[in-house]
Amino acid sequence: MTIDTVHAGAAGTWQLGDLTVNRMGLGAMRLTANADGSPSDRDRAVAVLRRAVELGVNHIDTAAFYFSPLRSANELINRALWPYPEDLVIVTKVGPGKDPSGQWLPAARPDQLRGQVEENLRQLGRDHLDVVNLRVHGPEPLSEHFGALAELRDAGLIRHLGVSAVRPHQVIEARAVAPVVCVQNSYGLGYRRSHDELIRDCAAHGTAFVPFFSIVTSGREAGATGEEHPEVLAVAREHGVTAAQVRLAWTLARGPNVLAIPGTGDPAHLEQNVAAAALRLSPADLARLDAV
What is 91-113 written as a DSSP string? Predict the structure, then answer.
């Protein structure tokens, strides 16, 4: 499979509220640092973002707390893509936060969420945010936090709302407060398959399911660099693609409402990831991969 002609729209589109996005997107977290933790090269990160847009990526996932000692994902996006293409949808998340040294802060209270939203607005140079996900972590109720974001949506600072790192009952709780356009949870081949029912529930409600860590192998932060499963490698060889491309194609095959946001700071890996939008796994391939 050649990678120089594949468009991010090859996997189709989905609606985030009234916003249409190609199902193959880009996660911005890995733009800020190299695998060894050192700061990324600014020009290279900018080049990745611009090339992504050239390849049809119009869904970028980011957060104000995606930063390294010298790089900020939001500021890189601003530098690379301003003025933003009309069809570009930038999705960010609030709830967690870091102090300037990079240390995690306690989760934001409902009254602190406006400050986090405004921080994203400043860094991105926007007067509103397309989609904001409330990142939760844990089983506690989220209605008060989600209600605070719904007020900011009503004030025009946010267009649509989603939730992240949630359990199924929390999605129901959020829907009772305001429309939920996307659910973003960790999920991938051989990882968190307990979310299969949630994916189907999201599809029934017209909600996007957006997995992060979708190309993980032996560890979440290792990304695609850990030891790979032999069955994934075998399917990759038969299609003449990489194991990461197989994992992305498997992810997209989980349902038409599933969006992929693989992250990378490498231009070559970006093109491979986008090319996975055109990779179609057969029923036999999928059955083999179910054993992973």
Answer: EEEES--B-TTSPBPPPPPGGGH
Task: Supply the pLDDT for residue 221.
Answer: 46
191 a catalytic residue = no
Paired tokens of 34: 């190299």
| Paired tokens of 255 | 């349902």
Contacts of 24 (CB under 8 A, 6+ apart): 8, 9, 10, 11, 56, 57, 248, 252, 259, 260, 273, 274, 276, 277
Structure tokens at 35: 């695998």
In the prediction, which pLDDT does 113 show?
98
Q: Cα–Cα distance between 244 and 224 in angstroms, integer?
A: 6
Burial of 289 (0-12, 13-18, 19+ CB in 10 A): buried
Work out the pLDDT band at 217, boundaries 50, 70, 90: low
Q: Would you say residue 44 has pLDDT above 50? A: yes
Q: Residue 40, class by beta-carbon neighbours within 10 Å (0-12 exposed, 13-18 middle, 19+ buried)?
A: buried
Name beta bridge partners: 89.
Answer: 59
What's the DSSP call for residue 36?
A: T
Residue of 66, 84, 187, 191 with catalytic role: 66
The torsion region of residue 7 among left (phi > 0), alpha (psi -120 to 50) and beta comes to: beta
Query: Locate tokens 């934001």: which residue?
Result: 108
Sorted by sequence, the CB contacts under 8 Å of residue 125 that are 6+ apart come out as 78, 82
The residue-averaged pLDDT of 264-268 equals: 95
200/126 Cα distance (integer angstroms): 33
149, 213, 148, 214: which is closest to 181 by C-alpha? Answer: 149
Question: What does the DSSP assignment read for 128-159?
Answer: SEEEEEEE--SSS--HHHHHHHHHHHHTTSEE
Query: What 3-state DSSP class applies to 160?
Result: strand
